[in-house]
Amino acid sequence: MEKAIKKYFPIFMIPTTIAFAIGFLVPFVYGIFLSFCKFTTVIDFKWVGLENYTKILYVNGKLDTTFLHSLWYTSLFTVVTVLIINVVAFAIAIALTRGIRGTNIFRTSFFMPNLIGGIVLSYIWLMIFNAILDDYSKTIVSTQWSAFWGMVIVVSWQQIGYMMVIYIAGLQNIPPDVIEAAKIDGASGWKLLKEITLPMMMPTITICTFLTLTNGFKLFDQNLALTGGNPAQQSELLALNIYDTFYGTSGWQGVGQAKAVIFFILVAVISVIQNKITTRKEVEQ
């Protein structure tokens, strides 16, 4: 049976390979090609070389800081959300694995926000924020920082429950014998968490960190619905900046495509670095 599977394995792989090529590989390679072209449609293009990449930072000989602002703003947003989501989700997971009453109800309640779409969720929170801030004659987009923390709250509220479920699964996979042995040896509280729980949770921490990291950099729906990049593009994250560049100005589709390529490289590099760091910690433990 095993020999037969190995023999016909290439045949079984053909449909998957074709689907992968059509759905991802060909569009990805063609997208990179279009980043070096000026185009309005994918079949109406003109090769312009590195002109699109130059226009990302310089427009008519003047420095355009819009993309750079979105880059550092997104980086800061990602760092803050990664820390808040993972720390809070891990703390809740620990609390809900202590055998308290109503654990299943709490788990369901924390997870439910993740089932709501980003656009719908953001519009709901937009009404809540503006209703509260109306007493101070302000809105969520009065400043870039009110918009920043508004997005942090919405994204954290939505994703904490999902990460909590993953952390609970990781905690439940820790052998009870190891915990009991550590307690017999006198470990308790912080020492138990530091010496036993965290090292054995590193694979789970790697997964959650990776997910929240990529989600932070790729965030679009909540940014579009909650702030729209206002005030004056100051709360515009990278994904929304690329969208506005591609669809906002005629003839700038190539520049938007060039930004998308840089965006992909940036997220890929950060993801690889993060994965290597956490994997190394797993090996050390």
List keywords for this structure.
285 residues; mainly alpha; two-stranded antiparallel sheet; 12 helices; 4 strands; 73% helix; globular
Description of the molecule:
The chain is mainly alpha-helical and 285 residues long. It is built from 12 helices and 4 strands, in the order αββαββαααααααααα. Strands 1-2 form a two-stranded antiparallel ribbon. A hairpin with a 2-residue loop joins strand 1 (37-41) and strand 2 (44-47). Helix 3 packs antiparallel against helix 9 and helix 4 crosses helix 6. The radius of gyration is 23 Å and the shape is globular. The model has no long low-confidence stretch (mean pLDDT 86).
Mean pLDDT, as a whole number?
86
How far apart the termini lie comes to 39 Å
Bulk shape: globular
Secondary-structure element order, as H and E? HEEHEEHHHHHHHHHH
C-alpha Rg, in Å? Answer: 23 Å
Placed side by side, the strands forming the largest sheet appear as 1-2
Estimated share of beta-strand residues:
under 5%
Tell me which oligomeric state these chains represent: single chain
Kindly name the structural category: mainly alpha
Count of alpha and pi helical runs:
12
Contiguous runs where pLDDT drops below 50 for at least 5 residues: none
Q: Helix coverage percent of residues?
A: over 70%
Strand count, sense and barrel status of the largest sheet are: 2 strands, antiparallel
The number of strands is 4
